[in-house]
Amino acid sequence: MTDRTVHLVQLYPRDMNIYGDWGNTLTLKRRLEKYGYAVRLSDHDPGDPFPADADLLVGGGGQDSGQFRVQEDLQRIAPELRAMAADGVPMLAICGLYQLFGHEFRTGAGETLPGIGILDVTTVGGPTRLIGNIVLESPEFGTVVGYENHSGITRLGPGQAPLGTVRKGAGNNGEDGTEGARVHHVVASYLHGSMLPKNPAVADHLIRAAVERRFGTFDAEPLDDTLAERAREVAAARPR
Ligand code: GLN
Fold first, then answer.
1. Do the beta carbons of residue 200 and residue 141 sit within 8 Å?
2. Pocket test for ligand 1, best of 149, 173, 190 (most atoms within 8 A of CB)
3. What sign results for the dihedral spanned by CA atoms 135, 139, 140, 142?
4. Are the CB atoms for 186 and 93 separated by under 8 Å?
5. What is the rounded average pLDDT for all residues in the chain?
6. Which pLDDT score, from 0 to 100, does residue 2 have?
7. CATH code, domain with 208
8. Where does the CobB/CobQ-like glutamine amidotransferase domain start and stop, copy by copy (predicted)?
9. 9, 11, 40, 237: most buried by Cβ count inside 10 Å?
10. What is the pLDDT, as a whole number, of residue 1?
11. Where are the beta strands (DSSP E) in 18-64?
């Protein structure tokens, strides 16, 4: 390990990792390496000691059953996660984990899963699944492309910023045009695909936040994202 090592932690890869969400971890790891950093990659699964020295956390989607399996452990580590989020540790929470980063998720079957309240959002299981390609406009990241598949309907509390505004697709609830949620350096979204390979601006925001927090500055040369650009164009042009 060099002294330029970034500790990347994947939350609940065993239970919360669908529709290619592992690609987010891989993208962060590869981009960090290309920027000249070594990456220590850890998994946090239920029961594991929580890696409090994490520089960057990423977690994916799951079935309701996966959310039930991680929920107790998530409550256990919630105080640390909340403190880290407030301290500027970057985090990416996709779909099922996004829902659990809010106040609660009431499933379609009527059970309530408490969240950890990093985000001022509440989710209820809806009657239909919201499935398909999605394109949104984010004030920070420009056009963001991906794929969504959820029945949860998420509503933002007052003052909670979304990640962006939906141009094609459903997003948080299919009604108010919002998608995802943003606070500190936490990015939460319904986008699979996976999200980061096709959205390098989001990946680099997370990387920059992690590196600046750990080492003070991030001054790496920009990467060649020609292929990602082409993938973005193809993805954005796909029918819903
Ligand atoms: N079970 C949740 C829903 O359907 C999350 C789905 C997911 O993570 N893809 O809303």
1. no
2. 149
3. positive
4. yes
5. 96
6. 53
7. 3.40.50.880
8. 11-199
9. 11
10. 44
11. 38-44, 56-59
